[in-house]
Amino acid sequence: KHGCAVNTQLSRQKNISCYDIPTSYDRVTMAPSIGLNLRVTGYKHQGGRKYMEDEFGVAYQQTADEKDLEYAFFGIFDGHGGREAALFAKEHLMDFIVRQKGFWAEDDDSVLKAIHEGYIQTHYAMWKELEKWPKTASGLPSTAGTTASIAFIRRGKIYVGHVGDSAIVLGYQDPDNPELWRAEPLTRDHKPESRE
Fold this sequence. Notes:
Number of strands: 9
Shape: globular
Number of helices: 2
Radius of gyration: 18 Å
Helix content: 10-25%
Strand content: 25-35%
């Protein structure tokens, strides 16, 4: 099967790509459907920080006959400078993506373009909310920001959208040794010094 990734920075730099799942787990097959036996666990921990600024989201849409899922969505939003941006991305990014006509297309390029456009629309919508967010201690506009790493599982494929330095890692059983689990990163961190 194929995995598709769209790496999108909300600045003018964009890197969109679709790739084959590496041969190290080519023998792992995904069903063309998700099925209704999807189990997900989420957890967030504030640690020693004064405020919790992180969010995660999990959502799905059932098929019309309710026997399968059209998609499953997973998102990690690592906020900084306040939680407003992370909360906004959690509440709106998936919706902006699935409203794109291309998201429902059969070809990967259309789905990837829809994910990219959803990120851009979320960015612009977030800017419109900035005035409503708490000001900094010195009275300047909010400095809240967020990473946004998301994955959709749809029709036996994984589509990944990513901005920032949160990570998405695919875990899979070793085909030769089912007791052993392997990890394959599906994202690369975006840092200020990154060229992409």
